[in-house]
Design a protein that fits this description.
The structure is a single chain. By secondary structure, this protein is α+β, with helices and mostly antiparallel strands. It folds into 2 domains: about 425 residues, Alpha-Beta Complex (Amidase signature (AS) enzymes), CATH 3.90.1300.10; about 90 residues, Sandwich (Immunoglobulin-like), CATH 2.60.40. The strands form 3 sheets. The chain has an 11-stranded mixed β-sheet with strand order 1-3-2-4-6-5-10-11-9-7-8, with helices on both faces. A 4-stranded antiparallel β-sheet has the order 12-13-17-16, with no helix packed on it. It has a 4-stranded antiparallel β-sheet with strand order 15-14-18-19. The longest helix has 23 residues. The relative contact order is 0.15.
Length: about 675
């Protein structure tokens, strides 16, 4: 079989692993293929702008994986598989701006726990994905701008109010990586999954360590893997759901008031080995508020007809498989948002105090951000008090004002004020006197309003469309579009703040693609705390009913994807290649790269995802090209992208090496 017969577009982890094991491709060549897609669709052409920071060490990690495979020492199913992480994850040696101009030069001193676990499993880190400043939003433009939709450029890649993992959603959907790491505080993992036909998992408290992740609201923040299949999610969970002895900066694992189970106590021996949950006999609750069944509540949601059509199709399939789908109220949300006369929220019932709710987005957040900077160890920005407040979340020029605070259950706050707080106080969670009562109150609210209700009604899980609609792409500048994007059910994923605030685990899977907008929408599954594995099994069963994910039409397979015509298995050797220079002279670009540690007999050079003629002279790969212009910079804070060069070489023994570079005045 030729190399061209294999494509990375929509390729799942198992197919990539089998191709690696069978010698149909090397990890170096996989990295090259993903980088060329980023070059062609993300940095030029469509300029989807989802992966603004690439790791120049990706080829080195891929070569190390190939050596392990050649020596029979693979580390597991993720060895050699490329992935991305949100710009809020620490990746040693790379910037960790969290989308904010204030932190654009902050360098990560180590890896976040999830990144560390994946690299220990042999996965190859490709780059950081886009997000709004500090994840305090959804589709607001940050230091690197924002990501756009690979499905339909007329619509947003995520929810405007809370969908900050927009870059992860776009990059994973468009096959710029095998999988991605996002995050969620309100719906920043679920929303981009819904808009991009992905699988997303939001864990119960403490199941995945958030050590090394920029915090936003430490009572709510969670790691969210993004994958294209449920099987891929299972492989990722086998790596990242693990005990972490270090707790600093991770509030739920630091606090002494509530005993949380260790991940090893609640996870299966193998997520990948889980069997689908039999659907026959299951009682699945669907809240009426999300399927146009409760139009008179205080914050009504109008679900688009094309979303309802997808829901009705799925419901029919579930019922045909023997599940009972029951339309119902949803006390956890009804009471939290006080949707009906007589509904009392957790404040009215005295479960939590107003001071605790203020502290969650006040002193606790200040402590968490300051702890992140202190433990990161960048001498140029060691504490939150040293940050430039005005640059933490600057309002983009020409953008409409955000509409936070329009719902009574919403939270509106100014992160820029945190700097002054940090200057006036040595941040310490132990000084937050409302904390114990508040944490106990959140846990009690979940039990009373959700878990007791599930048990009383005999429901196995709650399922509902993740979004009621999608916002137009110009919602940041067009008031009419903003009216749509800020509607309830659109601004944040259905459930709003409730799942994260109360610690309810969820899995989101594709529900289908809307016939009118050509945009995907997801289905979210929710269950009791620490029913995470069972939710994965339910997701397995639902996705097995039929393929509901569509491939993004804007990012098809590249016409010249393979570096080499004939595949060869990974081989040992010391071959390496380094790009010496990428020099622009007007419309022309000269590229030169030096091969060392062996003699290259095959070579391939790509510029912006397009193979270009290159010659091999005395151990150097040389090319002169005239790439298409790259346009304006994605924001006022960074230089414009330059031509992205990918070079791959192979020696007579089959060893493969690669390198990536751009011009010296352009960001990699």
């Amino acid at each position: 079989m030729t190399s061209e017969a294999l494509t990375v577009v929509d390729a799942d982890i198992d197919s990539l692993r089998h191709a690696l094991d069978a010698g149909r491709i090397t990890s170096v060549e996989l990295v090259a293929r993903y980088l060329n897609r980023i070059a062609a669709y993300d940095r030029s052409g469509l300029r989807l702008n989802s992966v603004p920071v690439l790791d120049p060490r990706a080829f080195t990690a891929a070569r190390a994986s190939d050596l392990r495979r050649a020596q029979g020492r693979t580390l597991g199913p993720l060895d050699g598989i490329p992935f991305t992480a949100k710009d809020s994850y620490r990746v040693e040696g790379l910037p960790v701006a969290s989308g904010s101009p204030a932190f654009r030069d902050l360098m990560a001193g180590d890896d976040a726990f999830a990144v560390e676990r994946l690299r220990e499993a042999g996965a190859v880190f490709l780059g950081l994905t886009n997000m709004p400043p500090m994840a305090a939003g959804g589709m607001q433009r940050g230091v690197y701008g924002r990501a756009e939709s690979p499905y339909n450029g007329e619509y947003l890649a995520s929810a405007f109010g809370s969908g900050s993992s927009n870059g992860s959603g776009t990059a994973t959907a468009a096959s710029f990586c095998a999988f991605g790491l996002g995050e969620e505080t309100w719906s920043s993992g679920r929303a981009p999954a819904s808009h991009n036909a992905l699988v997303a998992y939001t864990p119960s408290r403490g199941v995945i360590s958030v050590r090394g992740n920029w915090p936003l609201v430490p009572t709510m923040d969670v790691v969210v893997p993004h994958t294209r299949t449920i099987g891929d999610l299972q492989h990722v969970l086998d790596a990242v759901v693990a005990d972490d002895a270090e707790t600093e900066g991770d509030l739920w694992r630091t606090q002494p008031f509530i005993d949380l189970p260790r991940p090893s106590e609640v996870r299966p021996a193998s997520f990948a080995a889980l069997d689908p949950l039999p659907l026959a006999g299951l009682r699945l609750a669907v809240p009426r508020i999300y399927i146009n069944g409760d139009p008179d509540n205080a914050s009504p949601i109008v679900t688009r007809d094309s979303v309802m059509a997808l829901w009705n199709n799925l419901r029919s399939d579930l019922e045909a498989a023997g599940a009972e789908v029951i339309e119902t109220d949803f006390p956890a949300v009804d009471r939290y948002e006080m949707l009906h006369e007589g509904d009392e929220d957790f404040l009215d019932r005295g479960f939590v105090s107003r001071s605790f709710l203020d502290d969650e987005v006040g002193d606790l957040a200040v402590w968490a951000m300051d702890t992140f900077l202190r433990t990161n160890g960048d001498a140029n920005l060691p504490r939150l008090a040293d940050a430039e407040a005005a640059l933490i979340f600057p309002h983009p020029p020409g953008a409409l004002p955000d509409r936070y605070g329009i719902w009574h259950f919403d939270i509106s706050y100014d992160i820029g004020e945190y700097v002054a707080r940090a200057q006036d106080w040595e941040p310490d969670w132990k000084d937050v006197t409302s904390l114990e009562q508040g944490l106990r109150g959140l846990e009690h609210t979940r039990r009373v309003d959700f878990e007791d209700w599930l048990e009383a009604e005999g429901f196995d899980a709650v399922i509902f469309p993740t979004q009621s609609d999608v916002g137009p792409a110009d919602a940041d500048v067009n008031p009419a579009s903003a009216d749509i994007a800020w509607r309830n059910g659109v601004w944040v994923s259905n459930g709003n703040l409730v799942p994260r605030h109360l610690g309810i685990p969820t899995v989101t899977v594709p529900m289908g693609t809307m016939a009118d907008t050509r945009m995907p929408v997801g289905l979210t599954l929710a269950g009791p705390a620490y029913s995470d594995a069972r939710l994965v099994q339910l997701a397995q069963a639902i996705t097995a009913l039929g393929e509901r994910r569509t491939t993004p039409p804007r990012t098809p397979a590249l016409p010249d994807e393979a570096a080499f015509a004939e595949p060869r298995p990974a081989a040992e050797g010391d071959l390496s290649v380094a790009v010496d220079e990428v020099v622009r002279d007007g419309e022309h670009v000269t590229v030169s790269a030096t091969v060392s540690g062996g003699i290259a007999v095959d070579h391939a050079l790509f510029v912006d995802g397009i193979r270009v003629a290159a010659r091999l002279e005395n151990g150097r790969v040389i090319a002169e090209v005239s790439p298409a212009p790259h346009g304006e910079p994605v924001s006022a804070w960074v230089a414009p992208y330059g031509p992205l060069v990918v070079v791959v070489v192979r020696d007579a023994g089959g060893a493969v090496a690669g390198a990536v570079a751009t011009t010296s005045d352009s960001p990699l």
